[in-house]
Write a structure and sequence with these properties.
The structure is a homodimer. In chain A, strand 11 and strand 12 form a beta hairpin. In chain A, strands 7, 8, 9, 10, 11, 12, 13 and 14 form an eight-stranded mixed beta sheet that branches. Chain A is 28% helix and 26% strand. Chain A contains eight helices and 14 strands. By secondary structure, chain A is α+β, with helices and mostly antiparallel strands. Chains A and B meet through helix 1, strand 2, strand 3, strand 4 and strand 5 of A and helix 1, strand 2, strand 3, strand 4 and strand 5 of B. Strand 2 of chain A pairs antiparallel with strand 3 of chain B, so a sheet runs across the interface.
C-alpha cells in the first residue's frame, strides 16, 4: 500500500489541455467549466439538446505513421460534430476522453491539441469536460452537444416514398486521400489538394441547419461510412428503399497516378469519411433546393421507393442491387 | 477497393446493445433516441445540464481475470454517475462508446450489458447514444448527463476557511476489496461482503441532491482517487488548505487475513474507488448535518484552513503533511 508521493502528472496534463483548448478563458453559457467533477451548462429557452459520441483509435481511425498529430485532433472533433450537422443542430459544447501512451504526452499532444483547438474555433464549439488515462495506445472519445429549436431536429427515419435523395459536395475525395497517404504519396505537391478532404473534414453545419430550419427535409444522415452503407442506414430507419442514378453521383476528378487504378464511382459509393450530408426532400420542396449552398454543390441523385430494395441504375437504365460496402468496424478485413 | 458484401455485424451489435440497455422501450424526454446520428433530448424548464465523461479500460480500470463482466458494466456506469452526485445533480441520460475485441462480443458482452442495465435502473438513467469499435482490448467511455435546478450545482471551488469537512460512508473498503481480489480471495465466503463495495459502487445521488437543495455545502467532490488526492483537488480548486483529524476518518473494520498486513487508516486515506462524498459545510450549518443520511454515516473529519497546507493530526495532536497518495493514471507504478 505504500506509494511514492504524487507528482501530479495528471493535474499538469489537464491544465495543459484546458489551456490549449481555450477552456481557461471566457466561456459562454458554462456555469461550471471543465476541471470540476462535471460541467454545468445552461440551455437556451426553447432549445432541445442534441448529443452524440464518437471514438477515434490509433491504428483503426488514424495511423501515426501517416497522420500528423494536428490532423488527429482536427478530424476527431470534426467527425463527431458531423453527427450534429446531420440533425440540423448547432454545435455548442464538447468533452474529450483522452488515452495516451507516456511517449505521446509531449510534442505530439501539443500538436494534436492545436489541431483540435483549430477545429473547435471553426466549428464554434467549446470544451466543457474530459478525462485522461495512460494507455499503451492513443485514443480519443469525443462527446459533442448541440442545440436545435424544439421539434426541428431531423432524424434518419422520416424519408417517404417519392422523396428525392440529395447529397452535398463531391464524394470519394476523402477516401482517395487515404489511398494516397497509405501509398506514401502524401507529400507530392500535385496530389496535396486531394489530401485536404481526408485530413480536415468540414462538417456541413450551416447546410444542415438551413435545411432543418426551413423544414425542407424528411430525413438526413451524414456520410461517414460511405454512401452505400449510410443510404442503407437511412432507408432501414425510414422503412423504405431507394433508387440511385449512379451517373448522377458527384465524384472526384481522379488524378492519374502511375501504378494505381481507381474507380471514381466506387470511391464515391463506398469510400467513406466524406462527412457530406445525404437528405430526403419531398417532391414539392425540390425546386427550393439550390444547385449550390454557399460553395457546396447539392445534387439530386435518386429517389426514395416504397419497395425496400436499394438499387443503382446506370446511364443505360440497367438496375442492380447497391450493397452496403462501406465501413463496418466489426467486419474482418 | 473491392470489399466483401457488408454483413452488418455492427448493426446487429447495436441492436443487441439497445435491447439489453432497455433503449428499445419507452423513453422519457427523449425525442430522438439512440441509433440515429445523435439523440435529441428535452431539458426541463429551469434546469441546468450537468455533464461529465469517464473512461474504463481493461488492465487499468478492470482486470478480466478478476472482474466478472457484470461488474465491469455496473461499475463503469456507477463511477461516471458519481461525478454527477458530486454536483448535487440528478442523473438523466448516458452515452456509451464501446471498444471490444471480437472475442468479447458474445457472452461477455451480454453479461457486461446486464450489469450496466442493472446500474442504469438503480441510478434512474437512460441510454441515449453510443459508438462501437473493434479493438484488441476492451474499453468503455461513459458520458453522463444530469440536471440540477438553476444555480444549485455545487462545484469544488467554494470551500472557505472555517468550513467543516465531512465524508459520507466508510472509506477504504473498496480498496480492500481490490486487494482481496488481486490475491485470489474473492470467493472466500467470509470475505465476500468486503468485495461488494469494490464491485458495485453506490454513488451518493440522494445525499448530493439533498445537500445541494438545502444549500448546506460550499464545495463537494466524490472520492474516486482516494481521500488524500481528492482533498488536494478540492482545496486547490477552492484556494484553501485543510486539517484532517485522522482518528475521525471512518474506516473499514479489516478482516484478519493470514499473510496480508493492512492498515485501515492508510486504506481510508489513500485507497480510492470509494465513491463517497467529501463536502465542506459552513460552521452555522453543521448542526443541520445528521449523523446518518438514510443508512449512510456522515462524519466530520476536520476543517478548511486559510493556510494552504493540507495536514493530518493524530489523536495526540501531532500534525504532519497529508500527501496526495491516491490514484494518478500518469504516475509510473
Amino acid at each position: 500500500m505504500r506509494r511514492t508521493p504524487k507528482t501530479g502528472i495528471e493535474a499538469t496534463l489537464i491544465r495543459r489541455i484546458l489551456h490549449a483548448l481555450g477552456a481557461s478563458g471566457k466561456l459562454r453559457d458554462i456555469e461550471v467549466g471543465p476541471g470540476d467533477d462535471s460541467a454545468v451548462i445552461s440551455p437556451r429557452p426553447d432549445a432541445q439538446w442534441v448529443v452524440t459520441c464518437d471514438s477515434f483509435f490509433e491504428q483503426t481511425h488514424f495511423l501515426p505513421r501517416f497522420h500528423p498529430p494536428d490532423v488527429v485532433g482536427f478530424k476527431a472533433l470534426a467527425r463527431a460534430v458531423s453527427d450534429l450537422a446531420a440533425m440540423g443542430a448547432t454545435p455548442r459544447f464538447f468533452l474529450v476522453a483522452l488515452a495516451l501512451p507516456p511517449s505521446r504526452t509531449g510534442k505530439w499532444l501539443d500538436e494534436m491539441l492545436a489541431g483540435m483547438a483549430r477545429a473547435a474555433r471553426r466549428l464554434g464549439i467549446q470544451l466543457v469536460g474530459g478525462d485522461t488515462s495512460a494507455q499503451p495506445s492513443a485514443s480519443l472519445c469525443l462527446t459533442v452537444i448541440g442545440e436545435v429549436w424544439r421539434g426541428m431536429a431531423v432524424a434518419r427515419s422520416g424519408a417517404r416514398p417519392g422523396d428525392h435523395l440529395f447529397v452535398s459536395g463531391m464524394l470519394g475525395e476523402a477516401r482517395l486521400g487515404l489511398e494516397l497517404v497509405q501509398r506514401g504519396m502524401a507529400r507530392r505537391p500535385s496530389l496535396r489538394s486531394f489530401l485536404r478532404r481526408h485530413y480536415y473534414p468540414q462538417p456541413r453545419i450551416e447546410l444542415g441547419r438551413w435545411l432543418a430550419r426551413h423544414r425542407l427535409v424528411t430525413a438526413m444522415i451524414d456520410l461517414s461510412d460511405g454512401l452505400s452503407t449510410d443510404l442503407h442506414n437511412l432507408c432501414r430507419a425510414s422503412g423504405v428503399g431507394a433508387l440511385i442514378r449512379s451517373e448522377q453521383v458527384p465524384r472526384a476528378n481522379l488524378p492519374v497516378v502511375r501504378g494505381i487504378e481507381m474507380n471514381a464511382l466506387q470511391l464515391a459509393l463506398h469510400g467513406g469519411d466524406d462527412y457530406e450530408l445525404l437528405f430526403a426532400v419531398p417532391a414539392r420542396h425540390v425546386p427550393r433546393i439550390p444547385a449550390r449552398f454557399e460553395a457546396i454543390r447539392l445534387t439530386d441523385i435518386g429517389e426514395v421507393t416504397r419497395d425496400r430494395a436499394i438499387l443503382q441504375q446506370d446511364a443505360r437504365g440497367r438496375r442492380k442491387i447497391l450493397h452496403a460496402q462501406g465501413w463496418d468496424p466489426f467486419r474482418s478485413k
